[in-house]
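Fold this sequence, please.
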Amino acid sequence: MALFINLKNELKNENYIKKDFSVPFKSLDLPKEYSSKDKDVDVQMHIFKEKDGYLVSLSIKSDVQLECDRCLEKFNMDLKGTSNVFLSKKKLSGGELQEDDLIAKELEDEEKFNVSELLREEILIQTPMKALCDEDCQGICPVCGNNKNENPCNCEEKQKRENSPFAKLQVLLDKKKDK
């Protein structure tokens, strides 16, 4: 269920409005691997009427449950952030990018502005490309498959020694010790 705001009506008599609301996490049409314990995204939105559009300052607070890219364990990450977007009534130029173009977005319909889509984009932007449960996560051992955070092992080191070109010298040393 998408959430829409009629910007034209809301800012008819004023140049600024503030809205505080919550949106169900599941209603944001996020990829299936995204879930939340909080079940809602708390939003604080400031909208300023400008000459050529609207400046939207958006603050979100929620959490997202992700899978660690190293150890494959699920973990909870807090989502907190503020972003600013300029919704332009004019068509944006397709030429060379200017600094202001980085926060600008073309407003398709000011009477039916899709807030859910803006929230969805903000959550996707704030989610790291490489999700880690901890910066020091050790990951999974490629040899035995154990989570190295829970069961540290030295399988990789053993395998490197066994496949080393000097492994044959170790065999000779062992034979010498046996004599």
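The longest helix spans residues 115-126. The chain is about 20% helix and 30% strand.
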